[in-house]
Every structure is written in C-alpha cells, then in structure tokens.
C-alpha cells in the first residue's frame, strides 16, 4: 500500500510540475545580483580581447566601450559592438516543453544564437522585452551555449533617431535580465485584462500551441489566496475572451491601491489542468472627459507628478526591485501621485511598485523631439510594450513619443492593441482632448490661449537645473493649476540628477555639462531643497497661511486635498517646543503634546482646534506633523510662537556695563569695550576691524546697503549716558546707527527706503569664506530659500558645517551651506583661525545670507545675482529661474519687489541686530 501511495504521489507531483511554468535565470535578476558572462568589446575601453562582464549591466559602467550622451554628434561616437557568450544547462525534463528565452532589454540591436544557430530575427529597439521559442535549439540535460551579438547603435535609422539621439545618456549592452521560461507545449502565453471599478471584468487569453484546450477559468483572488469570483468561457480559438462581473470590488486608486490576483486555468475536455497563469490586477476605470478632466473611478484628479528616467550613477540604465522601491517611496514621500515614464517603458518591477504603493503612470513609446520609429518597427515595439505592460492598473495613459517624436500613423494602434482602450497623449502637443504644453510660463496658466477648451496637462514643467526650477516657482504654478477645473496637474522635470560614474575617469561624476543635473534629488538620491518644497506644496493636508500672534486661539483652517481619503484616516501630532540658547549644545525640549483628529471629506475645508496649554506663550515654537493611514509623514509644519524681539529679550538680559572708550584719527574711530576693539570709518560709519584681544574677527566693510549706492549726508558719533552711538544719515534720510555698549555687545539699527523694482533689500558685510567652519541658528532650515521657494523649511534649531556644494554639479553634500536662510532669530558663526561670533535679530522676517554659492560651469538661467559682500541681513531676497525660463516668468513670487514708499512702513524699512563678538 505504501509503495502504491508513493507512486501516486510522485505521479501527481510530476503531473502538476508539467502543468506549471518554470523560470531559470541565465543572468542575474538586476543591478544588485548579476552573473558573469564571457564578453568581447569591439572598440573603446578594454576592447579587442575576451574577458568577462556582469549581466545585466551597461557595458560602459563595467569599463568597456565609450561614453556617449544623446546630443553627441555621430562622427564623435564609436559604434562599438559587444559579443556575449554563456554556457548553461537545462533539465532533461524540458524535452517536451516549450522553452522561450526572454530578454527584458538590450541596447540596442541583438542577434541571438543558441548552440550556434540563430534563435530568430535580430531584435531592434532597446527598452522592450522580446523573446524567442528555442525549444528545437536546446539540448535538454546537456550543456548549451548562448551567444548574443549586441550593436550599441541600431541598424535601423528610425531607432537611432528615437533612442540614440535623445537628451539622455546612451549606453550599450544587455542591461535587463535574461531568463528561460519553460511551459507545457500547450500553454497560456499571456493575458490582457480590463477590470473596471464597477466590477466588470474581461480578459483576452492568448494560447500557444492551441490543441486540446476547451475551457478557460478565471478566478479573482485576494492577495492571500481567497477566491472572490470565478468566470468561465469555452475555448475554440488561440485567443479567447473571458468575462464576468465581480460584486463590489475594492477599487484601485493612488490612495487605496487595492489589488487582486487573477488566476487563469486552461482545461481540457476532461476538466484536467493543462496550464495555469496569474497576474496581479486592480479594478479601476479611467476616463478622459472632453473639456472636463481626467477621472479615475468617477473622481476627477490632478496629477502631482514627476518625469523619471531609469538611471543610477553606478549602473546606468540597469536597475533592481530595491532601486524601484526606493524611487517610488521617494516620490510618495514628496506627496506625488503620478510618474511619467520618460522617455521609454520601465522595468516591470518599477510598475509593480507603482501598482503596489499607488502611483498613476504615463507609459511612453520612445522618441525625442523628431519623427522617430518608422511604421514597421514602431508597430512592433508598441506591441511589445503593450503586451508587457497592459495589466498594470497604475498605467492610465499611453504617450506616443515625446516632444514631436510621435509617429501619427500609430495613433490608432494603441486602442487596437490595448484591451482597456486607454487614451493616447502627445507630450508637448495639443492633441485630441489634452494640451500637454511643455515649459509654459506662469501667465499661460490662465488657459486663455488657442486651446482653452482642452484639458491642460503639461507632461513637463518647471524644468529643474542645479537648484533652479522644480520647487522654485511651484507654489504659484500649483495655486493656478489647483484652482482651474480644466488643469489636470502635470509632471516636473526631472526626478534625479543623472551624473554617471565615469569608469575612464576614476569614477568621476559626469552630468554632461548642464544636460543632466536637473533633478529634485542628487545622483545618489540625495535630497535637495526642492524635495521638501514639493512635499509641502503637494501635501494633501493644507494649512491656511497664518502667523501666531498673542491673540492666537489655537485654531487653524485646513483643506483636504486628497481625492479619495477622509482626513479621519490621518493622525495629527502637535508639539509645543522650546530651544536652547546659542551657547549650549543644540537641544530642544518638547513641553506639551496633543494628538488631533478631524473628520474632513476629500476636497473640503474645515477647522482643526488645539487645546492651548496654559503657558503656551512661553514656548518658542508649535509643530504639527500629519501622518497618513500607512504611516507616511505627509508634512511637518512649524510656527514661531514668540516674535523675534521677545525671544532676543529673553536671551540678552545683561546690563550695558561700563562706558566704552574712544580714540579718533583723521579717518577712523577706535572704540574699546570689554576686551574688544572696534574700528569704524568716520566717513560712513562702516566697521573696518574687530579684535577680541589679539585675535582678529574678520567681519568688515559693513553695513553697506545692497540695492544701489546711497550718498552720505553726515556721519556723527556721541555718547548717550554710558553708550556710544555712531550714526550715519544719507541724503534721503536713510539711516544706519551703531550702539556700542560697555559689556561688549553692539547694536545695529537700519532705517531705509528700498529701491523700487529691486531684487533684494538690506545691508551686507565682508567676511572671508576661508574663515568659516559652520553655522548654528534659530530660524527656518535646514535648507536655503529663494523668493520663489520659501516653503519646505521648518522653524527650529539648526546647525551646518561648511560645504562648497554646487547643487547638481559637485560636492553633493546637502543641505548646501551657502545662500539665503529665512526667518532667522539668531545665528552663531563658527570661525576658522578666528573667534566665533553671534548675531541676534530683533526684527521680524529677516533673511540671513551666508556667503555666495559658487556658480556651476554652465548655469544658464538659474544663475542669480547675490548681494555684494559675504554675510548679509536682508528684508527681501530674489528668485531663481529654471533651465529654460527667467525667474520673472514663474509667477508673482518670482518677480522683483515693487514698493510704493508712501504705503510701506511709513516709507521706511527697519531692522535691528545685536552683535556679540565676545
């Protein structure tokens, strides 16, 4: 009996194995797991010899061939080839199976041989999965040899136009995984699913080796394996359609990315299983409604999106599931709900993560700014893209090329090939129901142009370069886009800087000048300042702008900008915080906490109310952190509780001390107080030298007004009791006043009328950059700001060591040290070879400019003018532009200041600062 049972068990086991699909990787599975193959490169680095290479990989990143950026002229390129060889074995049991060899992506033309025989026609096109049936070429149970000849540049001119002359790095090689799939001779080759939000379900089932199949069963299962619905259909052709209706499915959307497992079973006339195939799917309905908007499950959405290339400095276009998870999580952390696959289809695992975590996707047929794929190769590659990607619920629209690269003969083919009939976009064009204009200026957002009835949907906007664009300008843009019903959102250019580690330059990072440092993130996903600006502006929780004054009653007006989520699913944590003084280690104390809840439907506005602690006005700041239902922090907002004057009064409680002494020369006033010696110009009152004992503190040549020269009317000095006053009055009665106290403190009062249409306003000093070690401050931070990028910083206690990062070009240490910092209350400047000193700012809304950021080698329109000098105290600062537009084109926050002196501060701006050089 035991022998019979064992024999039956083995039979059933072998039977089930025969019906299942098996996968055997010949390469590694991604950048983080590779397999070495034999390799011969024809030209460039390490060419002319047989060696080994990691597969998958881009061969340049492995030290072969030559680097090319898409703009390189053909005569400057090496059209190297790579020959790959790999020996492998397959089980003897595969003798009676259909075995396909699958290439997920090869750049660019691939000729494949198995055991010396061609597997099929040469495949052309880099970003598309292709496969060959090699069943008759294999020797099951014995050693086999795979040989692949790869041409970096295609033999098809249209592919080179589309893929090799684009605005991105051009790599070569087998850059995505290679594997074998073994199936029964009669099998389900693939399925195409359309699952709608109302439960309607249909699928086209493609059967290979159609012979004995009579029925297909489709089971809709939860991810844990529970069957929720079952649909059946008879089979009488190689392609059959199975359909039905599922009752009340949990729908997929970017906020609730619910998915199911669709299991397809191919049965013979006896009901025996021939083959089984499964896909993860989502029930959702996408509509593009004319002169209205883009709807998912009946809800009109706005896409808060970014364009993304598949790129890594170490691996080029080769990726991994871990890298995809990291990228999508970073997008979700910025409160994005959409991503555009610019300018080619991505790896499957990236789409899987978008499905799982909730990002809507524009999937794109490759092209760049010129008519690209010809009709034949374009149709073939489109078929491969749609067959590969069709079932991902995250994909809501297709892109036919990019920026004039579409082949209009293929427009209708998308609907023919796609069971879901998703709409097609032409990025950068007014096409069909949408206007996807790229890089419009702010004024065009009024949507009063020639296509004002179209859905406005820029597939690229606010082009980043170095530290410009992206978050800079987004606040103005988004207010306009959010409030216009016909604006469906848009996609920032681009996700990350694309600087490659040059294997021919000792791993030096190269972004091809200003072609590729365009990202919100650095090349290794370092977070630049715009990351946090975007996070705040695109947070689904929006706090109405307000300041905390003594009359604060604990209430905030908020808006729910989710599309599907009630704010009762979020948590709000409020903290009242106190901060240490400049002379103590950086510390903060949380004095009181409160957990808040609010019931607020999507799109609604309401009030959230705090219980004010009895002594709330004694605290320094209020912070509120919002967290979504999945534990992801949406944003943290912070508000100073005390005005600067009140906070500085707490910190500076000393008496004035003894009377300073003064010595006059023909041109200078030399003032001694405590252990300090100050030298002032008698001509204009500027400080010329500061010494603490014998040690020089090299702050000098200030204060000087930053916006235009002012003629001195007179400069005088006098004692008021034990205090020395040095006062300079200018012709328009602007005034600078020093007050020197016997305890060593020194006050600066500034009273002036700014120039009309000025970029910045305030006063500045010289301070040698070589003498700066770091800075500690109380104010907004830790990132620098611009006039059109004020969001994304928090009020708190911050500290930074000096760095000379040029955003997107060199250094890559963030946050950058140099630049403008907002809402500063006090700062401690840490000196090198000179004593530290402190500044206390009594006035509201003052910016501290700390040194001048170095210019990139090719700054374009992101180069901005900074005030002269090195350390400045400013009432106003200037904006930064994008790669293609000057700052003035990006909206009101980007424009220079305009003053009517009769209406602002009685005609004058005021500023008070206390310096402590002790």
Automatic annotation (TrEMBL):
Record-level GO BP terms: lactose catabolic process
Entry annotated with the keyword Lipoprotein: no
Entry superkingdom: Bacteria
Record domain Glycoside hydrolase family 2 catalytic: where: 286-506
Domain Beta galactosidase small chain/ as annotated: residue spans: 729-840
Swiss-Prot/TrEMBL cofactor(s): Ca(2+)
Record bears the keyword Cell membrane: no
Name of the top EC class for this enzyme: hydrolase
InterPro entries in the record: B-gal_small/dom_5, Bact_Beta-galactosidase, Beta-gal/glucu_dom_sf, Gal_mutarotase_sf_dom, Galactose-bd-like_sf, GH, GH-type_carb-bd, Glyco_hydro_2
Catalyzed reactions: Hydrolysis of terminal non-reducing beta-D-galactose residues in beta-D-galactosides
Location of the Glycosyl hydrolases family 2 sugar binding domain: 51-184
E.C. designation(s): 3.2.1.23
One annotated Gene Ontology cellular component of this protein: beta-galactosidase complex
Keywords: Calcium, Glycosidase, Hydrolase, Signal
PANTHER family linked: BETA-GALACTOSIDASE
UniProt record similarity statement: Belongs to the glycosyl hydrolase 2 family.
Subunit structure: Monomer.
Name by which UniProt lists this protein: beta-galactosidase
């Amino acid at each position: 009996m035991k022998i019979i049972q064992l024999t039956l068990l083995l039979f059933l086991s072998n039977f089930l194995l025969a019906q299942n699909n098996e996968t055997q990787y010949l390469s590694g599975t991604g950048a983080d797991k590779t397999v070495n193959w034999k390799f011969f490169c024809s030209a460039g680095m390490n060419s002319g010899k047989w060696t080994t290479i990691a597969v998958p990989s881009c061969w340049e990143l492995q030290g072969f061939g030559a680097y090319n950026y898409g703009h390189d002229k053909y005569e400057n390129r090496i059209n190297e080839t790579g020959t790959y060889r790999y020996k492998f074995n397959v089980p003897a049991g595969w003798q009676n199976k259909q075995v396909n060899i699958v290439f997920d992506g090869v750049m660019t033309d691939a000729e494949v041989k198995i055991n010396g025989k061609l597997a099929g026609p040469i495949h052309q096109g880099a970003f598309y999965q292709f496969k060959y049936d090699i069943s008759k070429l294999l020797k099951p149970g014995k050693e086999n040899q795979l040989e692949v000849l790869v041409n970096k540049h295609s033999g098809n001119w249209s592919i080179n136009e589309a893929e090799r002359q684009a605005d991105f790095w051009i790599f070569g090689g087998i850059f995505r995984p290679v594997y074998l799939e073994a199936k029964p001779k009669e099998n389900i080759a693939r399925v195409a699913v359309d699952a709608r939000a109302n439960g309607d379900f249909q699928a086209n089932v493609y059967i290979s080796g159609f012979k004995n199949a009579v029925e297909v069963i489709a089971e809709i299962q939860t991810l844990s394996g529970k069957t929720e619905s079952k649909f059946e259909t008879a089979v009488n052709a190689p392609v059959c359609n199975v359909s039905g209706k599922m009752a009340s499915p949990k729908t997929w959307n970017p906020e609730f990315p619910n998915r199911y497992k669709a299991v397809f079973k191919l049965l013979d006339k006896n009901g025996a299983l021939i083959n089984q195939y499964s896909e993860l799917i989502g029930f959702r309905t996408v509509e593009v409604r004319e002169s209205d908007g883009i709807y998912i499950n009946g809800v009109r959405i706005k896409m808060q999106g970014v364009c993304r290339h598949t790129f890594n400095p170490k691996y080029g276009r080769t990726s991994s599931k871990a890298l995809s998870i990291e990228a999508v999580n970073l997008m979700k952390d910025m409160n994005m709900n959409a991503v555009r696959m610019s300018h080619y289809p991505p790896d499957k695992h990236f789409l899987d993560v978008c499905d799982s975590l909730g990002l809507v996707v524009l999937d794109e047929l490759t092209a760049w700014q010129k008519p690209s794929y010809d009709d034949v190769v374009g149709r073939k590659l489109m078929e491969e893209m749609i067959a590969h990607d069709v079932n991902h619920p995250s994909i809501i629209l297709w892109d036919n090329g990019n920026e004039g690269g579409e082949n209009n003969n293929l427009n209708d083919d998308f609907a023919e090939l796609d069971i879901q009939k998703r709409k097609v976009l032409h990025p950068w064009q007014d096409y069909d129901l949408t206007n996807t204009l790229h890089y419009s200026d702010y004024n065009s957002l009024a949507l009063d142009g020639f296509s004002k009835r179209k859905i406005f949907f820029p597939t690229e906007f606010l082009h980043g370069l170095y530290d410009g664009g992206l978050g800079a300008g987004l606040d103005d843009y988004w207010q306009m886009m959010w409030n216009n019903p016909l604006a469906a959102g848009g996609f920032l250019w681009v996700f990350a800087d694309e600087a490659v580690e040059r294997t021919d330059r000792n791993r030096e990072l190269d972004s091809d000048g200003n072609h590729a440092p365009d990202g919100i993130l650095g090349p290794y996903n370092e977070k630049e300042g715009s990351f946090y600006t975007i996070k705040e502006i695109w947070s689904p929780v929006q706090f109405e702008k307000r300041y905390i004054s003594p009359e604060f009653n604990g209430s905030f007006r908020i808006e729910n900008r989710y599309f599907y989520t009630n704010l009762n699913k979020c948590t709000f944590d409020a903290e009242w915080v106190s901060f240490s003084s400049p002379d103590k280690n950086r510390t903060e104390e949380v004095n009181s906490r409160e957990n808040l809840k609010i019931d607020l439907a999507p799109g609604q506005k309401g009030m959230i109310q705090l219980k004010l602690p009895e002594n709330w006005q004694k605290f320094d700041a209020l912070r509120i952190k919002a967290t979504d239902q999945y534990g992801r922090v949406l944003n943290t907002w912070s508000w100073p509780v005390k005005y600067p004057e009140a906070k500085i009064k707490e910190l500076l409680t000393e008496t004035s001390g003894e009377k300073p002494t003064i010595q006059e020369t023909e041109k200078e006033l030399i003032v001694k107080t405590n252990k300090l010696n100050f030298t002032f110009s008698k001509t204009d009152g500027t400080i010329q030298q500061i010494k603490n004992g014998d040690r020089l503190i090299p702050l000098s040549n200030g204060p000087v007004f930053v916006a235009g020269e002012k003629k001195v009317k007179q400069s005088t000095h006098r004692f008021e009791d034990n205090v020395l006053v040095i006062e300079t009055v200018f012709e328009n009665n602007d005034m600078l006043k020093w007050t020197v106290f016997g305890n060593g403190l020194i006050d600066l009062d500034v009273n002036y009328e700014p120039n009309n249409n000025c970029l910045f306003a305030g006063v500045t000093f010289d301070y040698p950059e070589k003498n700066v070690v770091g800075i500690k401050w109380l104010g907004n931070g830790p990132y620098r700001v611009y006039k059109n990028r004020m969001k994304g910083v928090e009020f708190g206690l911050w500290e930074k060591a000096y760095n000379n990062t040029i955003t997107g070009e060199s250094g890559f240490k963030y946050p950058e040290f140099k630049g403008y910092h907002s809402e500063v209350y006090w700062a401690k400047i840490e000196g090198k070879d000179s004593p530290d000193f402190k500044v206390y700012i009594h006035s509201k809304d003052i910016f501290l400019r700390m040194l001048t950021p170095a210019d990139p080698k090719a700054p374009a329109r992101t180069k901005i003018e900074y005030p002269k000098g090195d350390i400045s105290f400013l009432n106003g600062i200037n904006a930064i532009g994008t790669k293609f537009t000057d700052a003035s084109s990006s909206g009101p926050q980007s424009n220079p200041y305009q003053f009517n002196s009769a209406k602002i501060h009685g005609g004058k701006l005021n500023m008070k600062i206390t310096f402590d050089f002790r």
